[in-house]
Amino acid sequence: MLQEIRQVLRLVVLMSKQGRRHGSGSTGGLLILLWDEEAGAQRLNCTVAAAGSWCSGVEIKALQLDLKGRMFPHVSPSLEPDPEDLIPFTELHGSLRLLLSFQMKDARHWPSDWQSDVEAVLQAFSLANAGIQIHLKLKFAQKTSVRDFRAKIKAKVSRADQPPLLLDVSCPEQKRWFLSKPHGWAKRASWCQGGHPVDGGRLPLGIPPQAMDGGLLGDLSVRLVTLLHPCVLQYPNMPTELKSIKVLVYNPCNIPVSGPSGFFQTLPSSMDCQHLGLRGLQCPAHKDPEFRVGTVFTTEQWENEKKCDDEEQESSHLPVQQSLLLFLLLQHRNPFCSHLSDFVAADMLIEHHLEEILCNNKPAVMAAIRTEIGNAMKAQNQRKKQQEKLNSAAEVILSSTMSIVSCSSNVDFRNACFDLMKVADTHALSSHLGESLRRVMSWRFLPVGRCYSTQMEENLLHHGSTKSEI
Amino acid sequence: MLGKQISCTMESGSTQFFFLIDKLRIQLLNSIEGATEKDYFQEEISPREILSRIESVILRIVESLSKNEAPVLELPNRSSWSNVDFDSGVGLQMSSGHSVTTVKSNCPASVTKFAQILKILSVIYRLVQSNSYATKRDVYYNNTQLFGSQRSVDTIVDDISCMLKVSRRALHVMATSKGLIAGDLCYLEEDGTRIDCRSSSAAVSVSSNVSGIRNIVSSAKFVMIVEKDATFQRLLNDDFCRKLSPCIMITGKGVPDVNSRLMVKKLWDTLQIPIFALVDADPHGFEIMCIYKYGSVAMSFEAHSLTVPSVMWLGLLPSDLQRLMVPKRSLLPLTRRDENKLNSLLKRPYFASQPQWQKEMELMQQSKVKAEIQSLADIAPDFLTSIYLPNKLRFGGWL
User: Where are the domains of chain A?
Assistant: First the structure.
């Protein structure tokens, strides 16, 4: 099922690129509709529909007549979907540019969590194609579930020598433990709801002999983009700690590919963690939903402290846990490719030989990844240094203040201090002053123009937001 | 030869010799009587009041923290000319509407300074409370890691003095004096030590507790401020104080410290005799003289206790170089830095009440040369003490 959905996406993207008129956009909708004909059926029907400017180059007839047979050897024609299921989609995104239905057999042999796999792939696709709203509708076993993948905040990553990239930079739900609870006394303070992608540039890749023998020719490269969540730029004193690094690989169609697990398993040993300021990287064996697509590494620090519930994190005592998303976007150019089938073949070859391609370019790829992680760590290490400076000064400020209060024979002065902090003695005063001082230091707020503040939140919910970041 | 022709006797007590100086003194006294009473910087603030002012600072900090706001300290800006007014009767004094520098406790760039200020405040609090004293050096060694350098401590002590509107002496933080004094002067230190500056061969260090000096006894006709220690030593060796007795000479060894300035002020307030400045004929020397006379921007908040607007410019004047035909080999060209300094000095507010000074500086600007006092030795080895200074003092060669 997943493979077929990915094939359709590949076709749509490639046809769109081929047929795209100059200046046409990258927005629109994608509908994945999965349904069974009757309860207990072993066959599952799949309909893929697309609308909007992102698929403006798609010719449905060419798709259905020419390539369908070759692309989907394991499927059979399907019944047409219920038009009622398409109406909301067309109302939202306009007339369909693509409507393709097929049927999968032997659903009982599929992995039990195949739905999660589909969702994970669509989620990852949405991250790198933020202009496309994805609707997944599942109707089987007499149950209906709907899941939308829509970017609340988009950022265009532009570079002179690169095609523009529209990323979903909205802070993931599971990382927003503190966003809904801005600190009560920071009246002006707001949280950045998104992230700020950093374009690491393009790295040329050599094509390994096996891939060449398979027919993969031309220029191959990988573009690295990083995204750090949550953004705490507006809190320059807040200590941060990198909890995890998730690596997502995309083929030249911007479709996420699974693996190559072998290559990335060697990443921790290739990183000079000490030099980077990391306490080590681990690749967890478990498969949480977040980890279904891409490779995730967790830092050893996080592994040791994972028992702490995110919801209970006390920001004045713990650093903010951040996650780094590393996009590896493969790009391919072959002037001898002219037909759609050529592009499809090249794309599939790249996926097939991805492990060899990355291994063939291991030093350069690892160095590039190291650079990107190093840049993320620089900011963290800088914060750590500042935090040490603040903590050191806080000790002196507190001890000097308490020295004067303790020595003072002015009862009015002492009582005024106690009353202000609502304490009864110098010991409690010291404790409360210390807590308050560390809090005001850590929670210092400086608005940053490019951050997506909570004041925008209502707009985002309705209209979304797009910014350009270079 | 020239020196022998015009040399004159310098016997102590010669009425004729000090005629013009005595006349000058009368003029100065008359001008003082005509001056209106001014609000002087508070010299006598009780220790309790000082403690109270420090407590007010702490209370504001606690209040900020009680509201979960980052405490800030506001320090009057002591480095900006825009914060200073000029009064010819006082000199450079801090404007009432002066700008402030904000030191934040939650900004990494300023948090260390915030902590340094609090630390020194706590040290001062204890000193005042226990009526004990410490030097700025002692304060620095209290926590060298925090302060980093002696200069940081020095600056912050002055900042605190300005912020609390209290003299540094009242904060019980003393500074080791670098100045020297010699001549017809005796006094008692606060601890009862008797100081006699009349030794002909050695000078006395300026007291580190000038405000505590009492029982000043002197018959000096004038005080001479000497810019450089080298010149001061030369005069000492040449027995200047005996030859032109009775007189007092003092040096701050370059840019004067606060104690040297306080001493000059003290001598003026107590003896009310003319005070002359002997500085090099260069922009730097001129500026040093102006510090004694009109004060500095950094200490403008204490102008009333530090400035002596009656200081007269005795030499070395730029016009002296031409008049005395100082050998060209002794003259130095003005550097780019000298020229910039000179241009800056000419824009200062002093010259509105000192047209003759302005002429001298413009002469320096036009001639593009400068000279040290030592250049007079190229005329004759003892020219300075035997001819130049006696003639200047006898015949009113001051501005």
Answer: 2-149, 173-304+316-384, 393-456
CA dist., res. B268 & res. B350, Å (int): 20
Interatomic CA distance for residues B357 and B346, integer angstroms: 10
Mean residue pLDDT of chain A comes to: 80
| pLDDT tens digits for range A197-245 | 999 989 999 999 988 998 889 999 999 999 998 898 999 998 888 888 9
- What average pLDDT does this structure show over B70-89? 88
- Candidates B49, B58, B119: best to mutate against A (most CBs of A within 10 A) is B58
* CA dist., res. B383 & res. B50, Å (int): 52
Contact (CB<8Å) A386/B108: yes
**Is the Cβ of A174 closer than 8 Å to some Cβ of chain B?**
no
The number of residues making up chain A comes to 470
Q: Are B323 and B391 in contact (CB under 8 A)?
A: no
β-strand B186-188 against B194-196: which pairing, if any?
antiparallel
Q: How many residues does chain B have?
A: 399
Q: Give CA angle at A30 (A25, A32), nearest 5°.
A: 170
Going by the DSSP 8-state scheme, the letter that residue A235 receives in this structure is -
Q: Which one is predicted more confidently, B60 or A80?
A: B60
* Domain annotation for chain B: domains and CATH numbers: 2-36+177-395 (3.40.1360.10), 47-174 (1.10.10.10)
pTM of the model: 0.80
Interface touch B118/A444, C-beta < 8 Å: no
What one-character DSSP code corresponds to residue A285? -
Closest of A172, A156, A353, A328 to residue A248, by C-alpha: A328
Cα separation, A316 vs A310, whole angstroms: 14
Is the CB of A403 less than 8 angstroms away from the CB of B122?
yes
A449 CB burial (10 A radius; 0-12, 13-18, 19+): exposed
